Amino acid sequence: MIRLFINGLAASAGGGLTYLRNVIPHLSRRVDAETTVLLNPALRGEFGNLPNISFVATSESAGAFRRFIHEQTALPKLIGQSGAQVLISAGNFALWNCPVPQILLSRNSLYTSADFLRDVRVRGDYAIWMDTLVKGCLARQSISCADITVAPSEAFARELSQWSGRKVLALHHGFDADAFRSDPTPLPSAAKMQLEQAHGALRLLFVSHYNYYRNFETLFRAMPILSDRLNRKVKLFLTCQLKSGENPGTYRTDFATSLAGNLRERGQIVELGSIPYRSLHHLYRACHIYVTPAYAESFAHPLIEAMSSGLPIVSSDLPVHREICGDAGLYFPRFSPEALAERILQIQQSPELADKLSHNGLRRAVDFSWSEHVHRLVVIAQGMVDRRASESDG
Q1: Among the four 33, 158, 222, 394, which has the fewest Cβ within 10 Å?
Q2: Could you tell me if 6 and 147 lie in one domain?
Q3: What is the value of pTM for the model shown?
């Protein structure tokens, strides 16, 4: 029996929350592991009571840097009280003086992205630029402090290794198709009505909060090109609102909003807002093509959700995207709206190609398993404990 401690305090949205929502239930089913989880207090009620899982509370610290300092001072005591043998730091930053072996889960691609740093400078968002540089230094130092650093893809592991000068392991995040589609809860009525009104249109889907690195602007620039060349209406469905303050982080939406103005007036962009995760599978199945123009990514869960739902993929030509989707997608240079539009047109004009990509995606999606991810994570942790015991005996 191995005793684990997961620091999930930083998870509040996006990939971090998706990770905990899937990993914690799988850990609870293992009879060879007992796990203590430190969570954001606002999320504690989401998980209920689970076998082999203990939740611990700590005073909430607002802001990334206050949380970082709080973790550095409070975590050692909590780990000692839990009797944990291995710490799993799930939020990109390690515990610098860890009393037990530590696995760092690193998944933030912004710290290594030259495109992102250039983008925020062009936008004049120097607060985000400086914040990213400082956090990047802490993240790089964290890789040096951790016993093992794990990335969610081979491509990102290579990127992190080159950036940090340290070895980084790759361990794909998982996917559970049955769990993803199991909840019959329908889409919110407003979203359902918007989809019904789009009957007969080519329905594109992009699942993301608004932020800079998901590169919404390239997608918006591609829409008029599509409209000019398509012989049918086209609608882009977004799971966000293009309003500053309506999305996680401090990203300003003014530039994206100006690009989207005419598209909104013509009904070509539909801002559904946040869709409950339990109902998201209905949205995927109601659309024809999944698109992502992101210029920075470490894994991208929505790509697997889309493939599992049978959607052909059109994505920016990132090594991570090719690794995840393989032959289930068509790829385009990440800042080329013309090439993005051309890839969508290829699929729309060829039912045979669309069926092939859909079939390939359904096949590829089953390669990702949360159960396998958790199993390998436990094996890594057990190996660390055994090595520590061997060194002590020696």
Answers
A1: 394
A2: yes
A3: 0.92
